[in-house]
């Protein structure tokens, strides 16, 4: 068989890797309260050989992370609701059925300014963001369980932990999503 210089051989199947079927409502799913939202890890880097992670995100009214940036690609697929997304300082409304992609290193944030919860899928490539969420998040019962109530001292301790761990996960928190 002759090969063209543009042809790349596809590697053999790796039988050590398994089919994964993830259900965010399954009792085995990992649900984490993170900064007012609830994130359910559907696929981790362990499931995808580090290529990407898939997270089901429940963002209640008023929810969403502070402005930040990171050196990995991030895509959001809105399933329900609408978000205010800020990308390099420009605000946009993103609605159910739409997908937004944030290139690596770009300042951004999302905020649920509506009165209804938002549900979206988040894909981070390569994987790793789920490990950050596991370190900073609090386990909760379901994908829509609200985060536990915290007092000012607990909130300050949470943000201190986030600031200390963020560089390890190639993330930088910003004052504004410029």
Automatic annotation (TrEMBL):
Organism: Alloacidobacterium dinghuense
Classification via SUPFAM superfamilies: RmlC-like cupins
Domain Cupin type-2: 57-124
Top-level taxonomy: Bacteria, Pseudomonadati, Acidobacteriota, Terriglobia, Terriglobales
Annotated protein name in UniProt: Cupin domain-containing protein
